[in-house]
Amino acid sequence: MPSFLPVLWKDQRLFILDQTLLPLEKIMVELDNAQAVWDAIKSLQVRGAPAIGVCAAYGMIVGIREQDPGDDSAFRAAAAKVKIFLATSRPTAVNLFYALDRMEACLNQCGESTPQQLFDLLEKEATAIFDEDVAMCRAIGAHGASLIDEGMGILTHCNAGGLATSGYGTALAPLYTAHEQGRRFRVYADETRPLLQGARLTAWELMESGIDVTLLCDNMAAMLLASGKVDIVIVGADRIAANGDTANKIGTYGVALLAKHHGIPFYVAAPASTFDAQTATGADIPIEERDADEVRCHGGKLLAPPQVKVYNPAFDVTPMELITGFITDQGILSGARE
Ligand code: MRU
Predict the structure, then answer these.
(1) In the chain, N or C terminus with fewer CB closer than 10 Å?
(2) Ligand 1 center to 113 CA (angstroms)
(3) Distance CA 314, CA 165 (A)
(4) Is residue 1 assigned to a domain?
(5) Is 101 among the catalytic positions?
Protein backbone atom coordinates (compact mmCIF):
# COMPACT_ATOMS: atom_id res chain seq x y z
CA MET A 1 0.00 0.00 0.00
CA PRO A 2 1.29 3.50 -0.79
CA SER A 3 3.21 5.26 1.98
CA PHE A 4 2.85 8.85 0.76
CA LEU A 5 0.14 11.51 1.02
CA PRO A 6 -0.44 13.50 -2.20
CA VAL A 7 -2.53 16.11 -0.34
CA LEU A 8 -2.00 16.90 3.32
CA TRP A 9 -3.95 19.31 5.54
CA LYS A 10 -1.95 19.83 8.70
CA ASP A 11 -2.32 22.53 11.36
CA GLN A 12 -4.71 24.31 8.97
CA ARG A 13 -2.05 24.49 6.27
CA LEU A 14 -2.23 22.85 2.83
CA PHE A 15 0.69 20.77 1.53
CA ILE A 16 1.03 18.68 -1.61
CA LEU A 17 3.60 16.17 -2.77
CA ASP A 18 5.07 17.88 -5.86
CA GLN A 19 4.43 15.24 -8.54
CA THR A 20 6.40 17.10 -11.21
CA LEU A 21 9.58 16.19 -9.28
CA LEU A 22 8.84 12.46 -8.94
CA PRO A 23 10.44 9.97 -9.05
CA LEU A 24 13.71 11.80 -8.47
CA GLU A 25 12.64 13.95 -5.52
CA LYS A 26 9.89 13.48 -2.94
CA ILE A 27 9.15 17.01 -1.75
CA MET A 28 6.07 18.38 0.01
CA VAL A 29 5.32 22.02 -0.83
CA GLU A 30 2.95 24.36 0.94
CA LEU A 31 0.17 26.11 -1.01
CA ASP A 32 -0.68 29.23 1.00
CA ASN A 33 -2.69 31.31 -1.47
CA ALA A 34 -5.28 30.79 -4.21
CA GLN A 35 -2.82 31.47 -7.03
CA ALA A 36 -0.44 28.81 -5.68
CA VAL A 37 -3.31 26.29 -5.54
CA TRP A 38 -4.37 27.18 -9.09
CA ASP A 39 -0.79 26.91 -10.36
CA ALA A 40 -0.24 23.57 -8.61
CA ILE A 41 -3.36 22.10 -10.27
CA LYS A 42 -2.61 23.60 -13.68
CA SER A 43 1.05 22.52 -13.70
CA LEU A 44 0.20 18.99 -12.46
CA GLN A 45 2.15 19.35 -9.22
CA VAL A 46 -1.05 17.87 -7.88
CA ARG A 47 -2.98 15.79 -10.40
CA GLY A 48 -5.41 12.95 -10.91
CA ALA A 49 -9.13 13.66 -10.70
CA PRO A 50 -9.84 12.87 -7.01
CA ALA A 51 -6.61 14.51 -5.75
CA ILE A 52 -7.43 17.67 -7.69
CA GLY A 53 -10.86 17.74 -6.01
CA VAL A 54 -9.47 17.29 -2.51
CA CYS A 55 -6.78 19.93 -3.10
CA ALA A 56 -9.34 22.41 -4.44
CA ALA A 57 -11.61 21.86 -1.41
CA TYR A 58 -8.79 22.80 0.98
CA GLY A 59 -7.67 25.42 -1.54
CA MET A 60 -11.00 27.23 -1.02
CA ILE A 61 -10.14 27.67 2.65
CA VAL A 62 -6.63 28.90 1.86
CA GLY A 63 -7.97 31.36 -0.73
CA ILE A 64 -10.67 32.74 1.57
CA ARG A 65 -8.24 33.13 4.47
CA GLU A 66 -5.89 35.09 2.20
CA GLN A 67 -8.66 37.69 1.71
CA ASP A 68 -9.08 38.03 5.50
CA PRO A 69 -12.88 38.51 5.47
CA GLY A 70 -14.15 40.46 8.48
CA ASP A 71 -17.77 39.35 8.54
CA ASP A 72 -20.29 36.88 7.13
CA SER A 73 -20.97 38.68 3.87
CA ALA A 74 -17.27 39.37 3.18
CA PHE A 75 -16.59 35.68 3.83
CA ARG A 76 -19.24 34.58 1.33
CA ALA A 77 -18.00 37.07 -1.27
CA ALA A 78 -14.44 35.80 -0.81
CA ALA A 79 -15.61 32.19 -1.16
CA ALA A 80 -17.48 32.94 -4.39
CA LYS A 81 -14.40 34.61 -5.83
CA VAL A 82 -12.03 31.73 -4.99
CA LYS A 83 -14.49 29.15 -6.26
CA ILE A 84 -14.78 30.84 -9.66
CA PHE A 85 -11.01 31.21 -9.85
CA LEU A 86 -10.11 27.60 -8.94
CA ALA A 87 -12.74 26.27 -11.34
CA THR A 88 -10.69 27.71 -14.23
CA SER A 89 -7.58 25.63 -13.42
CA ARG A 90 -8.45 22.47 -15.40
CA PRO A 91 -11.69 21.66 -17.25
CA THR A 92 -11.96 17.88 -17.63
CA ALA A 93 -11.88 16.18 -14.21
CA VAL A 94 -15.37 16.57 -12.80
CA ASN A 95 -14.07 15.93 -9.27
CA LEU A 96 -12.77 19.52 -9.22
CA PHE A 97 -16.28 20.91 -9.76
CA TYR A 98 -17.84 18.29 -7.49
CA ALA A 99 -15.58 19.42 -4.61
CA LEU A 100 -16.02 23.15 -5.25
CA ASP A 101 -19.81 22.76 -5.50
CA ARG A 102 -19.90 20.85 -2.23
CA MET A 103 -17.93 23.58 -0.47
CA GLU A 104 -20.33 26.21 -1.85
CA ALA A 105 -23.42 24.19 -0.91
CA CYS A 106 -22.07 23.76 2.60
CA LEU A 107 -21.82 27.54 3.01
CA ASN A 108 -25.24 28.11 1.45
CA GLN A 109 -26.85 25.77 3.96
CA CYS A 110 -25.44 27.74 6.87
CA GLY A 111 -27.15 30.83 8.30
CA GLU A 112 -25.36 34.04 9.25
CA SER A 113 -22.19 33.21 11.22
CA THR A 114 -18.82 34.58 12.21
CA PRO A 115 -15.86 34.08 9.83
CA GLN A 116 -14.34 31.62 12.35
CA GLN A 117 -17.53 29.52 12.39
CA LEU A 118 -17.57 29.49 8.57
CA PHE A 119 -13.89 28.49 8.40
CA ASP A 120 -14.58 25.61 10.82
CA LEU A 121 -17.53 24.50 8.72
CA LEU A 122 -15.52 24.50 5.48
CA GLU A 123 -12.61 22.72 7.11
CA LYS A 124 -15.01 19.98 8.21
CA GLU A 125 -16.46 19.70 4.70
CA ALA A 126 -13.06 19.52 2.97
CA THR A 127 -11.96 16.85 5.42
CA ALA A 128 -15.19 14.94 4.74
CA ILE A 129 -14.38 15.05 0.98
CA PHE A 130 -10.88 13.73 1.76
CA ASP A 131 -12.15 10.98 4.11
CA GLU A 132 -14.87 9.92 1.68
CA ASP A 133 -12.28 9.59 -1.07
CA VAL A 134 -10.14 7.37 1.17
CA ALA A 135 -13.16 5.17 1.88
CA MET A 136 -14.30 5.04 -1.78
CA CYS A 137 -10.83 4.05 -3.01
CA ARG A 138 -10.66 1.31 -0.39
CA ALA A 139 -14.09 0.06 -1.51
CA ILE A 140 -12.98 0.11 -5.17
CA GLY A 141 -10.01 -1.99 -4.08
CA ALA A 142 -12.20 -4.47 -2.24
CA HIS A 143 -14.61 -4.91 -5.17
CA GLY A 144 -11.96 -4.86 -7.90
CA ALA A 145 -9.60 -7.32 -6.22
CA SER A 146 -12.04 -10.10 -7.16
CA LEU A 147 -10.97 -9.54 -10.79
CA ILE A 148 -7.28 -10.11 -10.04
CA ASP A 149 -6.13 -13.73 -9.96
CA GLU A 150 -2.75 -15.15 -9.09
CA GLY A 151 -0.27 -14.84 -11.97
CA MET A 152 -2.36 -12.42 -14.07
CA GLY A 153 -1.00 -9.69 -16.34
CA ILE A 154 -2.65 -6.27 -15.94
CA LEU A 155 -2.16 -3.25 -18.21
CA THR A 156 -2.82 0.27 -16.95
CA HIS A 157 -2.48 3.71 -18.55
CA CYS A 158 -1.43 7.01 -16.94
CA ASN A 159 -1.51 7.13 -13.15
CA ALA A 160 -4.74 6.35 -11.33
CA GLY A 161 -2.95 5.30 -8.18
CA GLY A 162 -2.44 6.64 -4.70
CA LEU A 163 -0.84 9.76 -6.14
CA ALA A 164 -3.98 10.61 -8.09
CA THR A 165 -6.30 10.32 -5.08
CA SER A 166 -6.18 10.76 -1.32
CA GLY A 167 -3.70 7.89 -1.14
CA TYR A 168 -4.94 4.47 -2.35
CA GLY A 169 -5.89 4.96 -5.97
CA THR A 170 -8.72 3.86 -8.24
CA ALA A 171 -7.31 1.74 -11.10
CA LEU A 172 -4.44 0.65 -8.85
CA ALA A 173 -6.64 0.06 -5.77
CA PRO A 174 -7.69 -3.50 -6.84
CA LEU A 175 -4.01 -4.27 -7.34
CA TYR A 176 -3.03 -2.99 -3.89
CA THR A 177 -5.86 -4.98 -2.30
CA ALA A 178 -5.08 -8.18 -4.22
CA HIS A 179 -1.41 -7.76 -3.25
CA GLU A 180 -2.39 -7.27 0.40
CA GLN A 181 -4.43 -10.47 0.09
CA GLY A 182 -1.27 -12.31 -0.94
CA ARG A 183 -1.75 -12.71 -4.68
CA ARG A 184 1.16 -12.05 -7.04
CA PHE A 185 0.74 -10.72 -10.58
CA ARG A 186 2.46 -8.59 -13.23
CA VAL A 187 1.50 -5.00 -13.98
CA TYR A 188 2.38 -3.30 -17.27
CA ALA A 189 2.44 0.51 -17.17
CA ASP A 190 2.18 2.57 -20.36
CA GLU A 191 4.65 5.47 -20.08
CA THR A 192 1.86 7.95 -21.06
CA ARG A 193 3.30 10.62 -23.30
CA PRO A 194 3.64 13.56 -23.20
CA LEU A 195 3.97 14.01 -19.44
CA LEU A 196 4.94 10.45 -18.56
CA GLN A 197 2.62 9.86 -15.62
CA GLY A 198 2.94 6.10 -16.21
CA ALA A 199 6.73 6.12 -16.21
CA ARG A 200 7.32 8.69 -13.50
CA LEU A 201 4.41 7.96 -11.18
CA THR A 202 2.76 4.56 -11.72
CA ALA A 203 6.04 2.68 -12.07
CA TRP A 204 7.38 4.50 -9.00
CA GLU A 205 4.42 3.94 -6.70
CA LEU A 206 3.96 0.27 -7.63
CA MET A 207 7.66 -0.39 -7.06
CA GLU A 208 7.46 1.39 -3.69
CA SER A 209 4.73 -1.09 -2.75
CA GLY A 210 6.68 -4.12 -3.93
CA ILE A 211 4.39 -4.86 -6.91
CA ASP A 212 5.96 -6.32 -10.05
CA VAL A 213 5.75 -3.62 -12.73
CA THR A 214 7.10 -3.41 -16.27
CA LEU A 215 7.23 -0.10 -18.15
CA LEU A 216 6.50 0.20 -21.86
CA CYS A 217 6.23 3.04 -24.37
CA ASP A 218 2.65 3.78 -25.42
CA ASN A 219 3.28 2.51 -28.95
CA MET A 220 4.24 -0.93 -27.59
CA ALA A 221 0.81 -1.67 -26.13
CA ALA A 222 -0.53 -3.36 -29.30
CA MET A 223 2.42 -5.74 -29.41
CA LEU A 224 2.06 -6.46 -25.70
CA LEU A 225 -1.66 -7.24 -25.97
CA ALA A 226 -1.05 -9.43 -29.03
CA SER A 227 1.55 -11.39 -27.03
CA GLY A 228 -1.05 -12.82 -24.66
CA LYS A 229 0.71 -11.47 -21.57
CA VAL A 230 -2.20 -9.25 -20.51
CA ASP A 231 -5.43 -10.67 -19.05
CA ILE A 232 -7.17 -7.44 -18.08
CA VAL A 233 -6.85 -3.68 -18.62
CA ILE A 234 -7.78 -1.31 -15.77
CA VAL A 235 -7.71 2.49 -16.12
CA GLY A 236 -9.01 5.44 -14.12
CA ALA A 237 -11.38 8.20 -15.22
CA ASP A 238 -11.62 11.97 -15.12
CA ARG A 239 -15.31 12.12 -15.93
CA ILE A 240 -17.93 9.52 -16.74
CA ALA A 241 -20.89 10.89 -18.67
CA ALA A 242 -24.47 9.78 -18.00
CA ASN A 243 -24.31 7.29 -20.89
CA GLY A 244 -21.06 5.71 -19.63
CA ASP A 245 -18.66 7.37 -22.09
CA THR A 246 -15.47 7.95 -20.14
CA ALA A 247 -12.84 10.69 -20.36
CA ASN A 248 -9.40 9.64 -19.18
CA LYS A 249 -5.78 10.41 -20.04
CA ILE A 250 -5.00 10.72 -23.73
CA GLY A 251 -4.26 7.29 -25.15
CA THR A 252 -6.89 5.45 -23.11
CA TYR A 253 -9.26 5.23 -26.09
CA GLY A 254 -6.57 3.57 -28.18
CA VAL A 255 -5.91 1.03 -25.44
CA ALA A 256 -9.66 0.28 -25.23
CA LEU A 257 -9.80 -0.36 -28.99
CA LEU A 258 -6.81 -2.66 -28.74
CA ALA A 259 -8.33 -4.52 -25.80
CA LYS A 260 -11.53 -5.13 -27.75
CA HIS A 261 -9.59 -6.36 -30.79
CA HIS A 262 -7.67 -8.84 -28.64
CA GLY A 263 -10.69 -9.93 -26.55
CA ILE A 264 -9.19 -8.61 -23.31
CA PRO A 265 -11.59 -7.15 -20.68
CA PHE A 266 -11.34 -3.37 -20.30
CA TYR A 267 -12.38 -1.91 -16.92
CA VAL A 268 -12.69 1.69 -15.69
CA ALA A 269 -12.21 2.21 -11.94
CA ALA A 270 -13.77 5.33 -10.42
CA PRO A 271 -15.45 6.67 -7.28
CA ALA A 272 -18.95 8.19 -7.18
CA SER A 273 -17.41 11.69 -7.43
CA THR A 274 -16.25 10.96 -11.02
CA PHE A 275 -19.73 10.10 -12.36
CA ASP A 276 -21.33 13.16 -13.91
CA ALA A 277 -25.06 12.77 -14.38
CA GLN A 278 -25.29 16.35 -15.75
CA THR A 279 -23.16 15.53 -18.79
CA ALA A 280 -25.16 13.44 -21.24
CA THR A 281 -22.46 11.89 -23.43
CA GLY A 282 -18.73 11.89 -24.02
CA ALA A 283 -19.20 14.50 -26.74
CA ASP A 284 -20.27 16.96 -24.01
CA ILE A 285 -17.14 16.48 -21.87
CA PRO A 286 -14.76 19.47 -22.13
CA ILE A 287 -11.34 18.22 -23.15
CA GLU A 288 -8.32 20.17 -21.94
CA GLU A 289 -5.79 21.21 -24.60
CA ARG A 290 -2.37 21.79 -23.11
CA ASP A 291 0.69 23.78 -24.03
CA ALA A 292 2.44 22.79 -27.28
CA ASP A 293 5.83 22.69 -25.57
CA GLU A 294 4.75 19.64 -23.57
CA VAL A 295 4.99 17.74 -26.88
CA ARG A 296 7.87 19.66 -28.45
CA CYS A 297 10.11 19.43 -25.37
CA HIS A 298 10.94 17.14 -22.53
CA GLY A 299 12.89 17.98 -19.37
CA GLY A 300 13.56 21.44 -20.78
CA LYS A 301 15.11 19.96 -23.93
CA LEU A 302 13.67 20.59 -27.37
CA LEU A 303 12.73 17.35 -29.22
CA ALA A 304 11.19 18.89 -32.34
CA PRO A 305 11.45 22.01 -34.51
CA PRO A 306 10.58 24.89 -32.14
CA GLN A 307 7.82 26.26 -34.39
CA VAL A 308 6.19 22.96 -35.37
CA LYS A 309 2.41 22.92 -34.95
CA VAL A 310 1.28 20.59 -32.17
CA TYR A 311 -1.89 18.67 -31.28
CA ASN A 312 -1.99 18.18 -27.50
CA PRO A 313 -5.35 17.13 -26.00
CA ALA A 314 -4.76 15.95 -22.43
CA PHE A 315 -7.66 13.48 -22.45
CA ASP A 316 -9.72 11.36 -24.82
CA VAL A 317 -13.12 9.74 -24.54
CA THR A 318 -13.61 5.99 -24.55
CA PRO A 319 -17.14 5.17 -25.73
CA MET A 320 -19.29 3.03 -23.44
CA GLU A 321 -19.41 0.23 -26.04
CA LEU A 322 -15.68 -0.42 -25.48
CA ILE A 323 -16.00 -0.72 -21.70
CA THR A 324 -16.48 -4.14 -20.09
CA GLY A 325 -17.29 -2.74 -16.67
CA PHE A 326 -16.87 -0.03 -14.04
CA ILE A 327 -15.20 -0.84 -10.74
CA THR A 328 -16.88 1.56 -8.31
CA ASP A 329 -17.11 1.99 -4.57
CA GLN A 330 -20.63 0.51 -4.83
CA GLY A 331 -19.53 -2.63 -6.70
CA ILE A 332 -18.76 -3.66 -10.27
CA LEU A 333 -21.20 -2.28 -12.84
CA SER A 334 -21.52 -3.75 -16.31
CA GLY A 335 -20.35 -1.78 -19.32
CA ALA A 336 -21.67 -2.27 -22.85
CA ARG A 337 -18.88 -4.33 -24.37
CA GLU A 338 -19.83 -7.89 -25.40
O1 MRU B 1 -3.50 14.95 -16.45
P2 MRU B 1 -3.60 14.07 -15.24
O3 MRU B 1 -2.30 13.47 -14.83
O4 MRU B 1 -4.31 14.75 -14.10
O5 MRU B 1 -4.53 12.88 -15.72
C6 MRU B 1 -4.90 11.89 -14.79
C7 MRU B 1 -5.71 10.79 -15.36
O8 MRU B 1 -6.07 10.80 -16.51
C9 MRU B 1 -6.15 9.72 -14.40
O10 MRU B 1 -6.24 8.49 -15.04
C11 MRU B 1 -7.54 10.09 -13.85
O12 MRU B 1 -7.52 11.38 -13.30
C13 MRU B 1 -7.98 9.14 -12.81
S14 MRU B 1 -7.15 9.37 -11.28
C15 MRU B 1 -7.73 8.30 -10.14
Answers:
(1) C
(2) 37
(3) 18
(4) no
(5) no
